[in-house]
Amino acid sequence: MLHFFFKRKRFFFFFFIIIVCISLITRGADKNRERLPGQKALQVLFSYPLSLTTLCVQNITALWTGYVYLVDVEKRNTGLRQEIQFLILENQQLREHFLENQRLKELLDFKQQFEYTLLPAKTIGRDPSSWFKTILVNRGTSAGVMRGSGVISPQGVVGTVIDTALHSSKVLLISDQNSTVDIIVKRSRVRGILEGQDETVCRVNYIVKKEDVLPGDEIITSGLNAVFPGGILIGSVAETSNNPDGFFKHVAVAPAVDFSKLNEVLIVMKTQTGTGDDTENTNRDRQRQPAAQALPGQGP
Amino acid sequence: MFKIYALYIGFTAGLLFIQTTALLPFGNHGIRPDLLLFLVLHASVALPAVHGACIIFIIGVFFETLSGAPSGLFIATYLLVFSAIKLPCRIFNFNTLIEMFGLLLACLLIKNLLLLFFMRFIYEYHHTYIMQPVFREAFFTLILFPLVFPLLRSCINPQHTAGRAGAETYKHAA
Q1: Is the Cβ–Cβ distance between A47 and A140 less than 8 Å?
Q2: Whole-number Å distance between alpha carbons of A295 and A264
Q3: With 50 as the cut, is the pLDDT of residue A272 above it?
């Protein structure tokens, strides 16, 4: 019996490899399954050199932009001062609208979606393969990041946290085909599900042909899935067409975020479900603090 | 043997770091060569089947640590590429860089076909949308091959690294 196995050991070895591969693939098909043992520890090990390199290069870049690249500062300063004046005016108007909105919500007894804070994070790596669109950020379970948290940037929605380690997390970008986001067309309030397609285009599914969606319309988060706050920009409609054989419209969306230049992001940290009247105020205040501190150029 | 494993692991970590870091400008523009495939190719040619399979498994685990791929996908793909490459390696000798380049082409073809199959039928991806980055990946992998592979060959040489006893083993294995 033993002789039989030894004689055909190469065959059995490759047979064993194929069995291992099939079991690995079957295991991977279950999305809720945890990773192989040791992979979290490896991710922690990798996060240190990746963070260190990011820090070094950002410091060098800061040196360049801070001291060497100071041409036209005076001109830009004047322009920015003017812009601030406009923004102050706009802010006052928006505050009025916000208070009005809050009063109306109280009248209608609307319930707040969820309470959240924003945690700033830096991109330290990207997916090593071309098949998947993920990035690595330098915040993990030690900062309270959880699987399923939304990730945004000042430009718009970035993606969702799919995996966490001690000091780093993997973020699935909205451009990946595995990603889905509940959306609303800002102008016509039509709802749909955004799915990733490729690096520059996403598509919106389940929008019925008769619905009013036009190229150039802004797409925002609906806030219904408790991952992203409502009203965050996702992108704009690039193209629409009607499929003659189907019920739904084909809607292509250009994401607002340029994923190739993504350096800083904000992780939406869900705190607790709130139904109180003043939750929106606390959200607004909490949102401002870390966002302003985290993103250079975004603060006051 | 420990030294060979350490060298492979070191190279895997180094190449993966280059492939993953967001700081290299070429990576941000979609240029992502699969540098670990060079290691898979090297291990397929230079190592005996059992040690080679162990090394490939480790490479796959490292890769998936930083990738958003489903657990086990790249380990399985690299192991299957290794198995497919190991068979012709038993019959033919692949010594020159051109012969290795031909083998790399076969590796790329097998890897991408396997991934395409898994992605389409198990993970339900639309293959039409992922073809462009995949072709780009293959193209840049081929371009970087003459730069990276000779370096790997000179640094990880099992016949030198494993000592006399090891050299005999590898001679027979090859």
Answers
A1: yes
A2: 7
A3: yes
Classified as helix, coil or strand, A189 is: coil
The per-residue pLDDT for A160 is: 94
Nearest Cβ partner of A54 from B23, B67, B75? Answer: B23
DSSP run (H or E) holding A281: helix A279-294
Pick among B34, B65, B78, B81 to test the A interface (most A CBs inside 10 A): B65
> What is the C-alpha end-to-end distance of chain A, expressed in Å?
79
CA dihedral B6, B9, B12, B14 (to 10 degrees): -60
For A139-179, write each residue's pLDDT tens digit.
999 999 998 899 999 889 999 999 898 889 999 999 988 89
Q: Which residue of B has its CA nearest to A49?
A: B17
* Segments of A105-201 assigned E as strands: 116-126, 134-137, 150-153, 156-164, 169-173, 180-185, 191-196
Exposure string of B41-79, with b = 16+ CB inside 10 Å and e = fewer, is bbbbbbbebebbbebbbbbbbbbbbbbbbbbbbbbbbbb
Between CA B104 and CA B35 the distance in angstroms is: 11
Q: Which residue has the higher pLDDT, A284 or B59?
A: B59
Report residue A35: phi and psi, to 5°.
Answer: -75, 175
pLDDT tens sequence across A104-148: 877 776 665 567 888 999 888 888 888 888 999 999 999 999 988
Q: What is the pLDDT of residues B75-100, one digit of tens each?
A: 889 999 998 888 777 777 777 888 88
Residue A263 pLDDT more than 50? yes
Where on the phi/psi map is residue A206: left (φ > 0), alpha (ψ -120 to 50), or beta? left
Q: Which fold has domain B2-173?
A: Arp2/3 complex 21 kDa subunit ARPC3 (1.10.1760)
The helix-helix angle for B2-20 and B36-46 (nearest 10°) equals 160
Domain boundaries, chain B: 2-173
Q: What residues in B contact A178, CB-CB < 8 Å?
A: 123, 125
Chain A contact present for B88, CB below 8 A: no
Distance CA A144, CA B98 (A): 51
Show the CA angle centred on residue A117, arms to residues A31 and A47, nearest 5°. Answer: 55
Contacts (Cβ under 8 Å, ≥6 apart) of A220 = A183, A184, A186, A230, A231, A232, A233, A234
Say how many Å lie between the first and final Cα of chain B, rounded.
16
Pairing outcome for strands A249-255 and A150-153: unpaired
